[in-house]
Amino acid sequence: MRELIKNDQIVTIVPQDFKKTNKGRILEVSNDGFRMELKYKPEGLIVNHICDFYSFTDNGYLYFESYIKALENNVITIANPVKHRFLQRRKFTRIKYLENLILSCGDKQHEVRTLDLSAGGMKLTTADNIDMEKLYDVSIKLSEEQEIKCKYQLIRVEKNDNGKYTISGRFVNLSNIDKMTLVQFCMKKDMENLTKKG
User: Fold this and answer.
1) Beta pairing, strands 95-96 & 84-87
2) pLDDT (tens digit, 9 = 90+) per residue, 52-101?
3) Which DSSP helix (H) or strand (E) runs through 10?
4) Which of 42, 80, 87, 116 has an alpha carbon within 20 to 30 A of 48's alpha carbon?
5) What is the DSSP pairing of strand 95-96 with strand 100-105?
6) Using H for helix, E for strand and C for coil, what is the string for 85-106?
C-alpha cells in the first residue's frame, strides 16, 4: 500500500452512514497503515468500523475498504487494507438496475423503466417520445433510507422495433455526497455480483 498512498495525498472516507462522509490529508504512511488529518469533525466515524476510502493517484482512482484503528481529535489512524482496486479512470462502475421511475419536467411526467445505473447517469426504456432538449427531475431510491434526487439530461434516444425508446442520459449538478453515494452503491452491487458469480 505504501507505493499507492503518500504524504499530503487527499483521501475521502465514507462510513456506513453516507451523510457523515469526510476527507483528509495523509500525514504519515507506515508498514501497518497511515495517519490522516480530517477536514471536518469526525462525526459518524467509529473506531474498528469498516469504512470505504477513495483517492486519486498516479495510477487512477483508488478504492479500498479498511477500519479506523485510532481517533484523536481530527487525526485518525487507518489500518492497511487487505486488498484494493482501481476504478476505471473515465467511467464509473455501471450496474444492472431495474426500477420504475418518473421523469418530470414542470407538470409533464413520463413513466420509465431503468436498465442500468452508474454515478454518471443511467439507461432507461419508455413508451413515451421524450423531448431531448429538456432537463428532467428524477428520484432514484437506492434503499429505504437513501434516495437521490437530481436532474437528468438525455444524451441519446433510439427507437426499438417494439415501438419503445431506449434512452441514455447523464446526471447534472449532482452533489459530491450524492455522487459518492452512487459510486459506493454501484461498487458494492458490482462486488456482490462478482462474488455470486465466483
Assistant:
1) unpaired
2) 888 877 767 788 889 999 999 999 999 988 777 665 544 678 899 999 99
3) strand 10-14
4) 87
5) unpaired
6) EEECCCCCCCEECCCEEEEEEC
